[in-house]
Amino acid sequence: MKRIRYTKFTGDLASSIGLEDLMQALADFLLDSGFQDPYAQFSELNNQTMENLREAIRQALESGELFDEESQQKFDELSADQVDELVDQIIQKMQEQNFINAEEPAEGTGQQGVGNGNGEARFEVTDKSMDFLGYKALRELLGPLGKSNIGRHDTRHEAAGVETNGSSKLYEFGDTLNLDITATLSSVFAREGIRTAVEGEENAPLNIEYSDVHVHQSDYESSCATVVLLDCSHSMILYGEDRFTPAKRVAMALSHLIRTQFPGDTLNLVLFHDTAEEIPLSQLPRVKVGPHYTNTREGLRLAQRILAKQNKDMKQIVMITDGKPSALTLPDGRIYKNAFGLDPLVIAETLEEVSRCKRSGIMINTFMLASDFSLVQFVQQVSAMCRGKAYFTTPQTLGNYLLMDFMSRRMKTVH
After folding, report:
1. Alpha carbon distance 335, 328 (integer Å)
2. What tens digit of pLDDT does each residue of 120-166 get?
3. 273, 232 contact by CB (below 8 A)
4. Which of 56, 159, 305, 326 is the most buried (most CB within 10 A)?
5. Is the CATH number of domain 223-408 3.40.50.410?
6. Would the pLDDT of 114 be above 70?
């Protein structure tokens, strides 16, 4: 007779690690903006190698924040080879649960999809990871605001719809026929009185006229098209401070907020530097800072073209920047650059583009990560021209201000 031996299941260290906790610990690594390597090339969007990931996971494991007391004791007893094996197991789990996609190394040796540590195998975060990091960033940003639930964009206006607010109105052509029976019958009885049935007219119909029909009122909720205009010029990581990574986190949090709470809204992302280009939100973690100059006008131009295609009640540009406009695309396609002071030509052309936004009904809200006097004047002028708001903030408070602005929709300037 076959005998079965039962033993206590103790699990392994790879199983004792929650991948969501690990992803949170790796957030800074996954959203790296080039602060540690300021001379990286802008075109190298996917320059994170599998060996970089392995080292980041090792550091996360050694931090002591991912294990309970018993598991931490086991980890401390592992040899270097056993730690490498544990890292391989964790990476395998991350691939199986769709947190990362790994590419094959150019010369395949070692484990499939993991690479052999020669820096040739690369990886990229998936939409699932983007969604998770966006949710975490949103939760952290909303915590200090004391917000637990966010609805759609409320307005002062009322309209005939399905979700009622307790009031009713006379029916007008085009209204949703969400009939208010009580108000309609009250209008009939007020006009004709309560008729008693006479002999032979037991089923006499009520004489309801067009002027009697009432429909329920509902709050009119508007939709909004937003373009995040993100400055990725080189100054965003200079001067001893990483300003670009917090901006990326805020863009991810805003994307998650819109997708989950404002499904009728749209969000597009435009990077501006020497020129400007639109990128998918899914590529945001891979973006690093780029060329040195700031072509604000080209960013505004591209944002306007995107918003012109959107059929929304509200259209806005959220511009996050830390520098003055210092570049301009000339009619022949050449880039005019001047990094010294506020160039009159660049400023004049940029403000003319702001005027075009105003004529198109586009509001510009600017989040300035600097406080130079000349820059403050320029941003205040942009805000005054375009019914927008100016927030002079820091990378640490950027998210709080931006989300408060997006949710409140109140016209105010925070200095």
Report:
1. 6
2. 577 777 778 877 777 777 777 655 444 434 444 444 444 443 344 45
3. yes
4. 326
5. yes
6. no
**Mean pLDDT across the stretch 52-74?**
84
Residue 300 above 90 pLDDT? yes
| Identity of the residue numbered 84 | D
Quote the tokens at residue 55: 């080292």
Q: How far is CA 313 from CA 223, 339, 353, in A?
A: 6, 38, 21
**Residue 100 dihedral angles phi and psi, to the nearest 5°:** -140, 155
CA separation for the pair 119, 413 (Å, rounded):
48
Contact 272, 229 (CB under 8 A): yes
In the chain, count H helices and then E strands: 13, 13
Average pLDDT over residues 14-28: 82
Cα angle value 143/398/151 (rounded, 5°):
50
Amino acid present at 166? G
Judge contact between 113 and 95, C-beta under 8 A: yes
Longest CA pairwise span in the chain (Å): 101
Terminal-to-terminal C-alpha distance of the chain: 82
Residue closest to 231 by CA, chosen among 267, 265, 276, 196? 276
The conformation of residue 143, written as its DSSP 8-state character, comes to: G
The pLDDT tens digits of the residues spanning 96-112 come to: 888 888 765 555 444 44
Q: Sort 10 into a burial class: Cβ within 10 Å, 0-12 / 13-18 / 19+.
A: exposed
d(CA 308, CA 329): 21
Domain ranges in the chain with CATH number 3.40.50.410: 223-408
224-231: strand order across its sheet:
276-279, 266-272, 224-231, 314-321, 362-368, 390-392
The answer to whether residues 201 and 289 touch, using CB atoms and an 8 Å cutoff, is no
- Per-residue burial over 307-328, b = 16 or more CB atoms within 10 Å of its CB, e = otherwise: beebeeebbbbbbbbbbbbbbb
pLDDT at 170: 81
Give the tokens for residue 134.
């966006």
Residue 26's identity, in one-letter code, is L
DSSP helix/strand/coil, 328: strand
